[in-house]
Amino acid sequence: MGDMKRLLFLMMVFGCVAAARAQVHTEAVEYKDGDTVLEGYLAYDDAIIKGKRPGVLVVHQWKGLGDYEKKRAEMLAMLGYNVFCVDIYGKGIRPQDPKSAGALASKYKSNRELLRERVNAGLEVLKKHELTDPKRVAAIGYCFGGTAVIELARSGADVAGVVSFHGGLDSPRSEDGKNIHCKVLALHGADDPNVSNRELAAFEDEMRHAKVDWQLIKFGGAVHAFTQWDAGNDNSKGVAYNEKADKRSWEYMKLFFGEIFH
Amino acid sequence: MGDMKRLLFLMMVFGCVAAARAQVHTEAVEYKDGDTVLEGYLAYDDAIIKGKRPGVLVVHQWKGLGDYEKKRAEMLAMLGYNVFCVDIYGKGIRPQDPKSAGALASKYKSNRELLRERVNAGLEVLKKHELTDPKRVAAIGYCFGGTAVIELARSGADVAGVVSFHGGLDSPRSEDGKNIHCKVLALHGADDPNVSNRELAAFEDEMRHAKVDWQLIKFGGAVHAFTQWDAGNDNSKGVAYNEKADKRSWEYMKLFFGEIFH
Predict the structure, then answer these.
(1) By Cβ atoms counted within 10 A, which residue in A139, B1, B82, B255 is the most buried?
(2) Phi and psi at residue B83, in whole multiples of 5°?
């Protein structure tokens, strides 16, 4: 890339200009996986950037697609991406209490085929959208969604990369690592009680044996859900927001996108 | 930061403009630690940037200060920093064969007080230099030098941050972690045979218990010396260059500097 082109690219990626002038269009998008009706959320800038652009799929946390994921989608749209939040659970299924949310997340975590199918259904919507450059698509996910995007990679999906934010990293079939042909970035709270050292080691071994292009970043002092603004700040609960880890992980994600969407 | 200021900062940090026009001044600098004569290497841009700027200390590998560290210093100077490569071993002491290099590295690794003294002697030179803003100083090191910069942090040195590239992370006195009051970034090859899982875990525990602001980044597929251009590409030797891990770790370092030198 020439200096000027590179500079313009950086200005876009780092949002110096876009942040000041971008206008984000958002809309709910109904789609289906077989007979199941799903409702995702689309976000893109329609002021500065014209035409096709890289696409980013966002997979939600255990309570289903909500305000948190929509806000992240808008932040990504401001960076110049065409963004689609998938709906794993189904239209209107948005469990608000931990018990129901946990039960639903478990349902999909214990049925990886179904989880893969649902993430891929969302990926199809994003790839077919007129503003998406289908050769430059990535997926990110938070907590439950982090597990989901790594599972998307394990399904052999044709994406450039996946980013897990404090996701569970376990796999019931570690041999599926061999299906991964995208880059993997796992962003992990070093004090996350939801991911045991054994699970971490198994994840690393899976990536290693399958010769995946992977990176794992550990954030000191961060527990589960470190990017979740409303998770409080009491690390002793095992779930807390951590501003440093949140901001750093976002920057690392942007660098990763800069690399895979070059 | 305002948008324009932020943009100019990014332009500097990412070297879009500086890389095209910077002129790097370099010189050997003789200095002392007690009666021991040392010879470091200074590098800074004298074309674009005027006056004081953040300082970066560079600590060499096991063979002592050589062409590799000088090249890194020039790369850092192009990014706008005032850079000083320390000399731990002494003027003219540059062991070229692995046996002598290993013996010297071991001498300092087994005498952490002396190692700290030598790194701090270099830090003083950098901090007192007229082009250094002494409140914005970091240290980076490669292999042996990675160990050295973490030891610098453990000495309680007043620096904003330290970055270890494939350094050994062990400490003979883990309680010294409590002296650390700078940010720590450890860049690590996930297949580095020189650092055992036990050593990694002990490092994490040291950082955790001392409540250090730390991050550890693991690069999949990378072994020891992954940034060392002339280390070959045979991972089975346990020492090899890895272009992806090299470039990514450099970008992570730049982000880290962007944060600590804000």
Answers:
(1) A139
(2) -120, 135
Distance, C-alpha A176 to centroid of its chain? 20
- Is A70 a residue whose pLDDT tops 80? yes
What average pLDDT score do residues A215-242 get?
Answer: 98
DSSP class per residue in B166-182: S-----S-GGGGGG--S
What SS3 class is residue A58? strand
What predicted TM-score, i.e. pTM, was given to this entire model?
Answer: 0.93
- The two structure tokens encoding residue B189: 């090859």
Best CA proximity match to A92, nearest among A39, A43, A132, A129: A39
| Other CB atoms within 10 A of residue B236 CB | 7
B16–A6 C-beta distance less than 8 A: yes
- Tell me the C-alpha distance between A242 and A210, whole Å: 32
Q: What is the distance of C-alpha B222 from the center of its chain?
A: 19
User: Measured at the alpha carbon of residue B12, what is the angle toward residues B9 and B15, in degrees to the nearest 5?
Assistant: 145
- What ipTM was reported for this prediction? 0.92
Dist. CA B103–CA B95, nearest whole Å: 9
Q: How far is A89 from chain B (nearest CA, A)?
A: 33
Cβ contacts of residue B157 below 8 Å, gap of 6+?
Answer: B119, B120, B123, B139, B182
Tokens at residue B11, please? 């332009």
B111/B3: higher pLDDT: B111
H-helix or E-strand containing B107? helix B98-109
